[in-house]
Amino acid sequence: MNYLPLFAQATTSSWWPFAVLFISVAFIVFAITKLRMHAFLALIVAAVMAGWLSAGSLKEMVDSIGLVTTGFGNTAAGVGVVIALAAIIGMCLMDSGAADQIVRKFMKVFGEERAGWALLASGFFLSIPVFFDTVFFLLIPLARMLAIRTGKDYTLYVLAIGGGGAITHSIVPPTPGPLLVGEFLGLDLGKIMVTGFIAGLVPAVGALYYAKWCNRSMPLPVRATTGSSLDDLKASTEKPASELPSFFISILPVILPAILLAAFSFVDMIEKQGIRTELVASMTQQAAGAPLDQAALKTELSRRLADPQFFSGLHGALELLGNKIMALAIGALIALGLVIRQCRLSWQSLADKCSGPLETAGVIILITSAGGAFGLMIRESGIGELIQVHATGLGINYVILAWFVTAVIRIAQGSATVSMITGAGLMAAIIGDGSGLGFDPVYIFLAIGFGSITCSWMNDSGFWIVGKLSGFTEKETLKGWTVMLTIIAVIGLVETFLFSKLIPYPFGQIGN
Predict the structure, then answer these.
(1) What's the rounded Cα separation, in Å, for the pair 41 and 91?
(2) Sorting pLDDT into bands at 50, 70 and 90, what band is 336?
């Protein structure tokens, strides 16, 4: 019996895109959680499956394979180099001692009595350029050593590190998940870096207060873990300060790319929105009412800002230096110079050191690019238009929808990155260029990021990293880690929803 006509008829049904979404997502969940299939293979197979299920003829099935490769290639082009450079920066920060210097500086500023805040800030900051599992590996010895010295607060220290790291890992590029979400939604990288960082502050505070409560209700001792002796931990946390680079040079590979990206976003916004005249008028009016010694400043400022070449030249320079690849390449070069100086490496030794992070980055690029292919096929199925119709009719807010869809997928299959990829692909299909949202699409970005933090449990590798490295049992990890991340996600949703209403266009309404 020829089933193709029946299949073609099914694809024309109004409900069929929902079936495509359900079948393909169910396959991803089953393949990853039950078959233990690699995420890359699961996503590629799901992308092909979604394309075939959406096709109405054999020719469309063949064409869909080309769309899969297009989605894969476009995503790799958008994030591949950035992920590789971020991996190199992360390796250099750790091996040079720069990351340790950053942590020690935070500890010195906050003091031992506020060690929880220091570890929260360290995890929050370091997870911007470094992957979460790496940051946790780096900071857990400090948590264990602090608990050994003080004889208390181990639960607080562990959760502070995990909470701070999980937030920026999910909402601040250049980590792959938020980077890919930004690419899907067509958002400026500098803008989402700044927005994600600011939006993460309130949930981070909420995470620390839950960690303090959990520390009182579930005080846990430092336990032996596989491959980790207390002597080794003590040695790693007592490295002489003279062997570490300065705080400024340690933080420079991270902060300089962020400054360049943010500066270009700001100048680009001024140039595109045509507010140079208003800016000049505002600044010169303020100077006009100032004391006489500022009159010369007013004249010179007016002349320079009014010069058409001033902003154009600055815009052109920052367009080069503030390009995401160029900015991270500058950060990577500084980081490489730092690790060469600190570790006294030859060129061959440096090449060997870079192999590990680049291999890791390669796997991540494959997974995220496969996710991009899957996201494209979901969009091509027509699910976006269909959900938009139903969501509009039901009055579902798109911020809530983005968070909910991402959270459900996260709980179902475990991977924050896969849930972000799926949620971003779906929301990109629904909102298009975002012009009809009534608020900046950056809030959709935040909703997806916070949704991906929800309920990390036993199907998430992060759950096992936190539990095994800290010496927590599964029950303790569920009560501490899983509940804390869900609280972070809910606080983030509430915060994002409120700001989308109160400040719908924080960067101005023209352009994204």
Answers:
(1) 27
(2) very high
Paired strand residues for 225: 228
Residues 201/461, Cβ–Cβ less than 8 Å = no
Residue 69 in this model has a pLDDT that exceeds 70: yes
Look at residue 278 and tell me whether its pLDDT is greater than 90.
no
3-state DSSP assignment of residue 48: helix
Which structure tokens are listed for 479? 């009560």
Rounded to a whole number of angstroms, the distance between the first and last alpha carbons of the chain is: 52
The residue-averaged pLDDT of 53-74 equals: 84
Percent of the chain past pLDDT 70, that is, above it, reads 79
Both tokens of residue 397?
A: 């807010």
Reply yes or no on whether the pLDDT at 280 is more than 50: no
Task: Mark 393-419 as b/e (b = at least 16 C-beta within 10 Å).
Answer: eeeebbbbbbbbbbbbbbbbbbbbbbb
How many CA atoms does the CB half-sphere of 93 hold within 13 Å? 34
Q: Are the beta carbons of 334 and 253 closer than 8 angstroms? A: yes
CB environment 327-353: b (16+ within 10 A), e (fewer): bbbbbbebbbebbbebeebeeeeeeeb
**Is the Cα torsion angle 46, 26, 76, 332 positive or negative in sign?**
negative
Three-state secondary-structure class, residue 477: helix
Calpha distance 137→470 (Å, rounded)? 10
Whole-angstrom distance, CA of residue 384 vs CA of residue 378: 8
pTM, two decimal places: 0.66
Report how far residue 213's alpha carbon sits from residue 195's, in angstroms, rounded to the nearest whole number: 29
Two tokens at 507? 């960067």
Q: Are 358 and 404 in contact, with CB atoms under 8 Å apart?
A: no
Instruction: Return the number of other C-beta atoms located less than 10 Å from residue 371's C-beta.
Output: 34
Three-state SS at 225? strand
Confidence band (pLDDT; 50, 70, 90) for 393?
Answer: low
Query: Phi, psi at residue 225, to the nearest 5°?
Result: -125, 160
Both tokens of residue 166? Answer: 């999980």
Whether 291 shows a pLDDT value over 70: the answer reads no
Report the alpha-carbon distance of residue 310 to residue 398 in Å, rounded: 40
Give the whole-angstrom CA distance, residue 72 versus residue 376: 9
Q: In terms of pLDDT, which residue wins out, 165 or 311? A: 165
Q: In whole angstroms, what is the distance from residue 271 CA to residue 359 CA?
A: 40
The residue type of 154 is Y
b or e along 487-509 (b: 16 or more beta carbons within 10 Å of the residue's beta carbon)? bbbbbbbebbbebbeeeeebbee
Shortest CA distance to 428 belongs to which of 386, 499, 505, 376?
376
Cα-to-chain-centroid distance, residue 137: 19
pLDDT at 24: 86
Give the pair of three-digit tokens for residue 94.
């750790």
Q: Give me the amino acid identity at 280.
A: V
Angle between helices 154-171 and 201-217 (to 10 degrees): 160
